[in-house]
Amino acid sequence: MCRVLFEFHGRPIYAYWFFYALGMFCAGALGLYLAHRRTRELWKVWILCLTMILFAFIFGRINAFCLRWTFSGFFDLREGGQVSFGGIIGALFVMIVLAQSLRMPMEDVLDISACAIPLAQGVQRIGCFCHGCCYGPISNSILSVRFPKYTDANGQVIGTPCFIHHLNLGLLEPSDVHSLPVFPIQIVAAVGCLFISGICLWMLKRNKLKGRLLWLYFVLYGAFRFVIQWFRPNYDGNNAVSGWNSGHTMSMAMLLIGMFFLILSDRDKLLSFSQGCQKIKGRFL
Predict the structure, then answer these.
(1) Over the stretch 93-121, which tens digit does the pLDDT of each residue have?
(2) Would you say 17 and 127 are in contact if contact means Cβ atoms under 8 Å apart?
(3) Alpha helices in the chain, H assignment, sequence order
């Protein structure tokens, strides 16, 4: 892992934000590619992509600092500080409003977003690994990694998040230079998100679940995130190692919302289900 990837004209390029921007670029490029054959008004797609990227950043940043109950360092981009759930909410909010305003086909917009959003998340998780956040539980397996200690010019410990967390729990001494070995759950999250993107892309290519792929993404990511959340630190402010936290709540809400709209949008199944209920009711009443 490497906090600073390289320097550009004497300025450090932080790994977290590099992969965050790369993820957004990949998602935007995929969105433009998939929309190319569906509309001739690509300028609308450009506007939609750029606006979604902006709002995903703003809402993700707000969500992160709301969990900390402080906005100190909100504009300091030297560190991490994004929450994927906030970014998803911001991106989808502006997507629905702007797509309606631009009179874009909502089914296509929803389906393309279902492929692009998890692609961005998968790439961005590499940045989490480099930065040392969103790490896994303490483990002595062969796959475990240690995250280094970073200090500022005054010698104050400023990172990595994994090292600071272990230090606050009393598991390390200030003189230590690395965290305890932890499982790199960020890589698992990256692979999982890319796999979800691949599933949605496969469904889109075969014209399956047309207009409902976004809700499939909600179900898949909500379930996946709920599981891996048990292997991530608790960011709710109490320094707990595990246990139910806001990540579980948001992923469960995402899963239930996806299931609700996935079923609700299938009119044929709803109709057959309603007819079946009427037949059962007629037999007993």
Answers:
(1) 888 888 888 888 888 888 999 999 999 99
(2) yes
(3) 15-36, 42-68, 84-101, 106-131, 161-168, 185-205, 213-228, 246-264, 267-284
